[in-house]
Design goal:
Bound molecules: S-adenosylmethionine
Distance between the termini: 25 Å
Strand content: 15-25%
Number of helices: 14
Number of strands: 7
Shape: globular
Largest sheet: 7 strands, mixed
Order of helices and strands: HEHEHEHEHHHHHHHHEHEHE
Length: about 300
């Protein structure tokens, strides 16, 4: 949905656009091409590797480019440090980059045996191995169940807690094997995904406090837009998409008056217009080309 998301931002020469999740710089490159000449591009990522890559691949004459290593939740701070008081577009494409899964060596994938780290920003303190070692059985169950919507959360947590008494869980391969052991074989055979998929996603969300970051970002993002500026979110996880949907609805329809009142008495004014009444999903052709994109959901609003 690269094209669709960038189109939604309505980039034009001279615009000021933020990409809060640079990743492999795919969206960023497309945006930069469209805002030259005279544009300003601000690119952010928590992952140092994404920052280094962006510094290598993003360059254009007639464009001011700022690359920031940090959390998009801190966007108000970054913009004020750059002396930018309003922007014309903000994109975030949340989740993992291909690089993080395939080449970071930080244990994001159950298909590789790597140190169980899962930090997007290696400056943060807590790794996935720390969480698996320190959380109680109840906390592990809640994490797998809430963030991973994992049906066998309690069984998996019980097995991990029993096993870690004899051997600490320090690699992604070890974790994937323990999760597979805990899921009943008949249930695992019926699943289309690897039995450890949801546990890995849940741990990663917990390690990086991803829902807190999204919540903080959504709280202020629209206020950073110039009138007519656009905010566009690509979410992969249903919990994240629900947060975006709810927040966008509140921005567009904030009135809390009962429907029987002839006119609004609460005085809450809309701050944005929905650009996606219905969520946008990738087409079958896009999914065939890139199966990882199958769960992506795109929503956007325009500031009033
Ligand atoms: C799906 S990738 C982005 C791909 C990118 N749009 C592209 O075209 O290549 C997600 C990226 O978001 C980054 N990320 C996730 N949460 C973040 C946050 N709260 N702040 C900054 N970056 C974040 C990850 O480190 C990762 O590099």
């Amino acid at each position: 949905m690269l094209e669709e998301a960038v189109d939604m931002l309505a980039c034009r020469p001279g615009k000021i656009i933020v990409d809060g999740t640079l990743g492999g710089s795919g969206h960023a490159r497309r945006i930069c091409e469209q805002i030259v000449p005279g544009g300003v591009f601000v690119g952010i990522d928590r992952d140092r590797d994404a920052i280094d890559r962006a510094r290598r691949v993003l360059a254009a004459k007639g464009l001011r480019i700022h690359i920031v290593h940090g959390n998009f939740a801190d966007l108000p701070l970054f913009l004020s440090q750059l002396g930018i008081s309003g922007v014309d577009g903000i994109l975030i494409d949340i989740g993992l980059s291909l690089h993080q899964i395939e080449a970071s060596g930080r244990g994001f994938s159950f298909g590789r045996d790597e140190p169980l780290d899962m930090r997007m920003d290696v400056r943060s303190e807590v790794t996935a191995a720390d969480l698996v070692a320190s959380m109680t059985e109840r906390e592990l169950t809640q994490t797998f169940s809430r963030y991973g919507e994992e049906r066998w959360a309690a069984r998996i947590a019980r097995h991990l807690v029993a096993q870690r008494k004899t051997q600490p869980v320090t690699t992604s391969g070890q974790l994937a094997r323990l999760v597979s052991e805990a899921v009943p074989a008949a249930a695992a055979r019926k699943q289309k995904i690897h039995p450890a998929t949801r546990v890995f996603m849940a741990l990663r969300i917990a390690v990086n406090r991803e829902l807190e970051a999204l919540d903080r970002f959504l709280e202020t993002a629209v206020d950073l837009l110039n009138p007519g500026g656009r905010l566009c979110v690509l979410a992969f996880h249903s919990l994240e998409d629900r947060m975006v949907k709810q927040r966008f609805r509140d921005l567009a329809h904030p009135c809390t008056c009962p429907p029987r009142l002839p006119r609004c008495a609460c005085g809450r004014q809309p701050r944005a217009r929905l650009l996606t009444r219905k969520v946008r999903r990738p087409t079958d052709a896009e999914i065939r080309k890139n199966p990882m994109a199958r769960s992506t959901r795109l929503r956007a609003v325009e500031a009033l």
